[in-house]
Amino acid sequence: MRKALMSAGIVTLLIMTGCSNSDATHSAATDKNASNTVQGETAPDDSMAMGNETAGGQMHHSGSAELPAGLQTAQNPEFPVGTTVIMNMDHMPGMKGAQATIAGAYDTTVYSVSYTPVTGGEPVKNHKWVIHEELQDAGQSPLKPGSKAILNADHMPGMKGAQATIDLAQQTTVYMVDYTPTNGGEPVRNHKWVTGEELSAK
Fold first, then answer.
1. How far apart are CA 147 and CA 112, in angstroms?
2. What pLDDT does residue 96 have?
3. Signal sequence: where (predicted)?
4. What are the residues whose beta carbons fall under 8 Å from the beta carbon of 79, sequence distance 6 or more?
């Protein structure tokens, strides 16, 4: 009888120990899964974010102050070099509403273009802006909407060398600007291009 009771006690103890270990393992797994879920909600994977930026045609932020050959400096721009302005467009994240300084003003024909990047990827529609001097062998006369042209600009990955269709053409003054994005990014230097219609006096 005593042996039977001892055996029953040992079996009970083993069952309890097994449940305890199983519960602890399940609890740890649950905690880990919960932690992963929270991290997934609050801290997206960086590689995915970078991939999305690339897929979306992320523009280069700062650029060279070097100008295309033949580009003429504006003689009487609405916003002279050194003027502080507010940008009213959103070509890039953090641009709209940002305070900018005019780094250059030029008279030219500006184009909105659509093209497929030479590096592959989705077609880019209505990219703003490319200027006449950034088109390969474009000649002297402005191109009309619907015309085809090869891009010499490299504002975005896969742009240079791509064949583009002109969506919009406008003779105007274009500006190169320096600014700090409103979303807290690094300062941008020599951003090309914005038009006077996209700027307002500070």
1. 12
2. 96
3. 1-24
4. 85, 102, 105, 175, 196, 199, 201
Please list, in sequence order, all residues whose beta carbon lies within 8 angstroms of the beta carbon of residue 31, skipping any fewer than 6 positions away. Answer: none
CB-based contacts of 163, cutoff 8 Å, min separation 6: 115, 116, 148, 149, 150, 151
Closest to 162 measured CA to CA, from 119, 109, 110: 119
Q: What is the DSSP letter of 95?
A: -
Partners of 111 in beta bridges: 130, 169
Tokens at residue 133, please? 């001097």
142: closest CA among 117, 114, 109, 104? 109
Mean pLDDT of the chain: 78
The sign of the dihedral angle between the CA atoms of 131, 135, 141, 142 is negative
Distance linking the first and last C-alpha atoms of the chain: 97
Q: Give the pair of three-digit tokens for residue 22.
A: 């199983």
pLDDT in tens, 138-192: 999 999 999 999 999 998 899 999 999 999 999 999 999 999 999 988 999 999 9
Note whether 118 and 106 are within 8 A (CB): no
Secondary structure (3-state) at 115: strand
